[in-house]
UniProtKB/TrEMBL annotation:
It comes from the Bacteria. Belongs to the glycosyl hydrolase 88 family. Keywords: Hydrolase. InterPro entries: 6-hairpin_glycosidase_sf, 6hp_glycosidase-like_sf, Glyco_hydro_88, UG_Glycosaminoglycan_Hydrolase. GO terms for molecular function: hydrolase activity. Pfam families: Glyco_hydro_88 (PF07470). SUPFAM superfamilies: Six-hairpin glycosidases (SSF48208). This is Glycoside hydrolase family 88 protein.
Length: 422
């Protein structure tokens, strides 16, 4: 009997190793296939995007490539994409292009006109420094962080996102608007803290995250898009949306920014309140009754709900179903992979890892993945930028590609048993 039991144990262990090997091989194949597509698409892109002052962003209504100038918040994603392709392939062709496009953004290190300098500079120069350790890139990032801090108000305890403006529909005037997206910029501040030792950077990041946690996150862990503050007292004046369906709804990409941002905050601080917030936001996303079976969300979690008295005119009849937002899925997948390494409960680890894997595999197939030469040479299709503004609805978006590639690299590292931050 002992011999038989030993043979059975050996047999099942052999089967386990065999099937695990098959699963990992399948995952390695899908990751390599996606990066092969990225190489094809971006090789084509580089033949049309030759002006280093114009950064690929999306498709125009007429089907042509839309580019933006250095002031646009998405400028840093294109060089970031090139760095990710270089990281996977180790081909110096991609490094050369990444360097050219990254260095074209340098004067943004003095940009104080909006909060997006974190997106613009950390996605470009942050990856450049991580992969080259070039001191000049570090210095650019530190100056960029100083510029971002100029938008911080001690009275409010937050970094102002946009300059004063009207809300959608013009119902209210926003004096000190802070958007959930702003959480992503905080990584730049932690970089500056780690490389200078100046605690001001860290303190501003933590205070901003705490205020976001208090005022953007609802009791059920859904999120508001915009919080408007009194700039003198820090009092909350308005809780609204700019890109979601309604002030009371949950804009899908905003929820994704929150998951990503609070996961990142826990990485740097190891403060459990940020981990609790990240898992609460993630569970709201994954457990939502309106999340489609493929885990690629509609542009707003309440897009199918009958919400009246909107601040803008929404004609849902123009769509057979609410548009999906592949960018929200890509951001969330990348965040969930990291979050799965922080939670202690094995059930939660599996939940987040498996959900991310499911998202990535579904994004890697029709209808979301592009065929070579189509989609204006972006990788992912079917994202939504700003539906209330009727801008970038059901189009490719450069930042959808960015977080998709980042998530693929994170998936590869975890499958190989490597730390995400190395």
């Amino acid at each position: 009997m002992k011999t038989n039991n030993g043979i059975q144990v050996f047999f099942f262990l052999t089967l386990f190793v065999f099937f695990s090997s098959c699963i990992n091989k399948k995952n390695d194949t899908y990751i390599a296939t996606n990066f092969s597509l990225a190489e094809q698409q971006y090789t084509n892109m580089l033949t049309t995007a030759t002006d280093l002052t114009q950064y690929p962003r999306t498709s125009e209504l007429d089907g042509s490539l839309r580019t933006v100038d250095i002031h646009n918040w998405t400028g840093g994603f294109w060089p970031g994409n090139l760095w990710y392709v270089y990281e996977f392939t180790k081909n110096d062709k991609w490094k050369k292009e990444a360097v050219r496009w990254t260095e074209s953004l340098e004067r943004n290190k003095y940009n104080t006109s909006h909060h997006d300098i974190g997106f613009m500079m950390y996605c470009s120069y942050g990856n450049a420094y991580r992969l080259t350790q070039k001191e000049a890139y570090r210095d650019v990032l530190i100056q960029s962080a100083r510029s971002l801090c100029e938008r911080y108000s001690p009275a409010v305890g937050s970094i102002m996102s946009w300059n004063p403006r009207k809300s959608i529909g013009g119902k209210n005037s926003w004096d000190f608007p802070v958007i959930i997206d702003n959480m992503i910029n905080l990584e730049l501040l932690f970089f500056a803290f780690e490389h200078t030792g100046d605690s001001v950077f860290r303190d501003i990041a933590i205070r901003h995250a705490e205020r976001t946690m208090t005022n953007h996150v609802r009791s059920d862990f859904s999120t508001f898009h915009v919080i408007d503050y009194n700039p003198q007292t820090g009092e909350v004046l308005h809780r609204q949306t700019a890109q979601g369906l309604a002030d009371s709804s949950t804009w899908a990409r905003g929820q994704a920014w929150g998951i990503y941002g609070f996961t990142m905050m826990y990485r740097f601080t190891r403060d459990d309140k940020f981990l609790t917030t990240a898992t609460g936001l993630a569970d709201f996303f994954l457990n939502n009754k309106n999340l489609p079976d493929d885990f690629v969300p509609y542009w707003d979690f309440n897009a199918s709900d009958k919400i009246t008295n909107l601040d803008w005119e929404y004609d849902s009849s123009r769509f057979t179903e609410p548009p999906r937002d592949a960018s929200a899925a890509a951001i969330t997948a990348s965040a969930l992979l990291e979050l799965s390494t922080f939670v202690k409960e094995e059930e939660k680890q599996k939940k987040y890892f498996n959900a991310a894997e499911r998202m990535l595999h579904n994004l890697s197939t029709a209808p979301y993945i592009a065929k070579p030469g189509e989609n204006n040479n972006f990788i992912l299709k079917h994202s939504v930028g700003n539906l209330p503004g009727n801008n970038e609805v059901d189009v490719p978006l450069v930042y959808a590609d960015y977080y998709f590639l980042e998530a693929l690299l994170r998936h590869q590292r975890l499958l190989a048993g490597r730390n995400l931050q190395t």
